[in-house]
Amino acid sequence: MFESLSDRLSQTLRSISGNARLTEDNIKDTLREVRMALLEADVALPVVKSFIEQVRERAVGQEVSKALKPGEQFLKIVNETLTQVMGEAQEPLELKGEPASILMAGLQGAGKTTTVAKLARFLREREKKKVLVVSTDVYRPAAMDQLQTLAGEVGVDCFPATPDQKPQAIVAAALQEAKIKFYDVLLVDTAGRLHVDEEMMGEIKALHQTLKPSETLFVVDAMTGQDAANTAKAFNEALPLTGVVLTKADGDARGGAALSVRQITGKPIKFMGMGEKTDALEPFYPDRVSSRILGMGDLLSLIEEAERTLDKGKAEKLAKKVKKGKGFDLEDFREQIQQMKKMGGMSSMLEKIPGMGNMAKLAEQQGPMKEMGKMEAIINSMTPWERQKPELLNGSRKRRICEGSGTQLQDLNRLIKQHKQMQKMMKKMTNKGAVANMMRGMQGQMPPGMGGGGPMGGMGGGGFPPRF
């Protein structure tokens, strides 16, 4: 996310952050580079001008000149101003009414229907709400069927409607159904158009009047850059928008939309779509996004993701098993791989750790998740007995496992070697100095290309340092 902008800003700010003394000249040179980086990221020109002016005012004042480390203070100012541009604090949904209703608006192709499903899942799983979704898109073929299918996938109810009905009639009936059956939230998907037109605006205004929603969210494709902010502004002039959802933010290497929307529309970004899966929707935290853009990591998001996705029951069960001295078998190894995949893989985790942004890119290039997928396939091809006792695998068993998983013998041998290293580490964890031992053992546990055994082994090759 925002790779181009992050690379350019990190490189520019790194050159100034080490300076013991800042002058107007080196601040001016740095701000020129920052300005170019923002314009190349397709940030709207008025936003760039305002941003640069705010940073300049603070940087040439007493705030930096009296600081013990002026370079670091300058970086702090850039971070705070970037956060301010995007909205300062995360703004949650205001779910008022029984039911609370949310109207989703946007252009065709922005990803409204998928976003409705993602938001429904978010509200059901994280907010514990009973959700009903409904489609008023009577124009796009199979739009209603798509929402029905997605609703089934995320475990919420979909109000039945047909293309021969009027959108206002559909909304009125769905609202009545939601009241009768005590739904907490009604999510309304609307028709999109290829451009902003009077007919579309007239229809959505009428829907808004019927529904009187507590939230009117504008769904916009982050890949369109500053055009996203301009389209949101046009919609805001016709509809009382309460917030914006940026879709496809995982593919937006520039970041122009995220940095422009708030300042141009005055409306907060409430969510970001970070992938195609129905769980790939994140609340938008300006401070965390700013931190990521500047290569400073996002530990809070990483911790929240871990708490949400990791299976505490399995973790406790494994801890008890290891403590009793029963060992760490390949079934346990497979569980660890699956847990990491749930968290988005190695590169997703690394980019949230401060100072590890470049490591995340290397992880992506080296393909550790591909290696983990290969390991999982090998373990899946084993019998339960073989997973518990890998040391008893003979030649014929190994050949069968490799054929079943579509892998080579060296892949299986490497897996067995890494499993033995993991076993040793687990044993050390039961002794005194467990944490220190575990950290020392970490170096050898990465998949090929990410640890001591691969081409990236050691600091010289760009791999993990022996201690975190």
Automatic annotation (TrEMBL):
Its EC number is 3.6.5.4. GO terms for molecular function: 7S RNA binding; GTP binding; GTPase activity. GO terms for cellular component: signal recognition particle. It is an enzyme of class 3 (hydrolase). The keyword Nucleotide-binding applies. Gene3D superfamilies: P-loop containing nucleotide triphosphate hydrolases, Signal recognition particle SRP54, nucleotide-binding domain, Signal recognition particle, SRP54 subunit, M-domain. It catalyses: GTP + H2O = GDP + phosphate + H(+). GTP binds at residues 106-113, 189-193, 247-250. Keywords: Cytoplasm, GTP-binding, Hydrolase, Nucleotide-binding, Ribonucleoprotein, RNA-binding, Signal recognition particle. Residues 268-281 form the SRP54-type proteins GTP-binding domain. It is found in: Cytoplasm. One of its GO terms (biological process) is SRP-dependent cotranslational protein targeting to membrane. Pfam families: SRP54, SRP54_N, SRP_SPB. Part of the signal recognition particle protein translocation system, which is composed of SRP and FtsY. SRP is a ribonucleoprotein composed of Ffh and a 4.5S RNA molecule. Involved in targeting and insertion of nascent membrane proteins into the cytoplasmic membrane. Binds to the hydrophobic signal sequence of the ribosome-nascent chain (RNC) as it emerges from the ribosomes. The SRP-RNC complex is then targeted to the cytoplasmic membrane where it interacts with the SRP receptor FtsY. Interaction with FtsY leads to the transfer of the RNC complex to the Sec translocase for insertion into the membrane, the hydrolysis of GTP by both Ffh and FtsY, and the dissociation of the SRP-FtsY complex into the individual components. Composed of three domains: the N-terminal N domain, which is responsible for interactions with the ribosome, the central G domain, which binds GTP, and the C-terminal M domain, which binds the RNA and the signal sequence of the RNC. Belongs to the GTP-binding SRP family. SRP54 subfamily. This is Signal recognition particle protein. It comes from Marinospirillum celere. The lineage of its organism: Bacteria, Pseudomonadati, Pseudomonadota, Gammaproteobacteria, Oceanospirillales.
